[in-house]
Amino acid sequence: MAGGGFRGRAVAVVDSGWFQNTVIAAIVLNGISLGLETYEDVFGPYTAYFGIADRVFVTLFVTELLVKVYARGWAFFRDPWNWFDLFVVGVAVVPATDGFSVLRLLRILRLLRLISVIPQMREIVSALFRSVPGLSTVIGLLFVIMYTSAVLGEKLFEDISPHYFGDLGTTLYTLFMLLTTENWPDISDSVIEEAPYAWVFFVVFIVVSAFIVLNLILGVIVTSMEQEVNAERWEEDQELELAQHESVMAQLGALTEEVARLSAQMRAMGVAGEFAEEGGGMGKQNSPSPE
Q1: Angle, to 10 degrees, between the axis of helix 2-15 and the axis of helix 17-36?
Q2: Most buried by CB count within 10 Å: which residue of 29, 187, 204, 219?
Q3: 272 shares a domain with 180
């Protein structure tokens, strides 16, 4: 019983708002301290204090995970986000030796724990992962368009602008810059001066890749997020309907019991009336007749 009581208290603490807000505040403060460490010229004399603060944050995060493990039990390990938290915090407790010094640079990943702590961020990332099948198809289409355009562009403009279209790899990188529409006039101008017809290639590629295919990618992501939100709302509606159904059924059950009780009372009253009538009739028969 004592263990169950302590676990119940741990569950209440983990599910409380102040606990979540404390974890979020610790993650944000830890991110700020890690950012301030980069200003070595300004905060160099306070390196020791940053080390103490880092150990304090690590202790808080380890304590948080231990409380969650105790409260959730084995259910804690069934959530992928909890594995992410374990990895991020586990990196922080690796000894800072020469062999593991690179892992210490991953301390900044603690800031990514905001995604697992804040439900809204977690929903967005979950929607992105659910959109991977649709995204893979659209990204595959984009790759086919870029590869075909790269081979065509390399054949057409290799001699005119070898800086941008010298080989297949260089051309793919050039097309990626065109895809971002960043400084694309510089690329096109280097070719159009000697090949005036080249504007057709650049216009068609930018319209198809940057305006059509990228919008398809955005459409897939938005649709996935909308489905995620609708699915959550559907679950909430189902829970509400189930609660209402149980309430109505409970009221119907109580009403049925009340009707049954009243019916029993009516039957009892009817039987009593019949006995009363029979008793009155027999009394009249046994009474002496007047002379």
Answers
A1: 60
A2: 187
A3: yes
**What's the pLDDT at 186?**
85
Encoded tokens for 29: 């403060």
- In degrees and rounded to multiples of 5, residue 166 shows phi and psi of -70, -40
> Among candidates 111, 86, 87, 91, which has minimal Cα distance to 101?
91
Please identify, among 96, 117, 138, the residue that sits at the C-terminal boundary of a domain: 117
Question: The tokens 């980069």 sit on which residue?
Answer: 38
Read out DSSP for 145-205? HHHHHHHHHHHHHTTT-HHHHSSHHHHHHHHHHHHTTSSHHHHHHHHHTT-TTHHHHHHHH
The whole-number mean pLDDT for each consecutive block of 10 residues of the chain, a chain of 291 residues, reads 69 87 89 84 81 87 90 87 86 62 67 82 79 81 90 89 88 89 83 86 89 84 76 68 78 81 76 56 51 47
Measured between alpha carbons, how far is 37 from 50 in angstroms, rounded to an integer? 7
Q: What is the pLDDT of residue 275?
A: 53
Evaluate if pTM is beyond 0.70.
no
Instruction: Name the token pair of 185.
Output: 């006039």
Distance between the two ends of the chain, CA-based, in angstroms? 88
Residues 147 and 266 in one domain: yes
C-alpha distances in angstroms, 250 versus 140, 255, 258?
55, 9, 12
| 288, part of any domain | no
User: Other CB atoms closer than 10 Å to residue 107's CB: what's the count?
Assistant: 19
Write out the residue range of the structural domain in which residue 252 sits. 119-282
Count of H helices and E strands in the chain? 14, 0
Q: Write down the pLDDT at residue 172.
A: 92
Residue 98 maps to which CATH number?
A: 1.20.120.350
Please tell me whether residues 72 and 135 are part of one structural domain: no
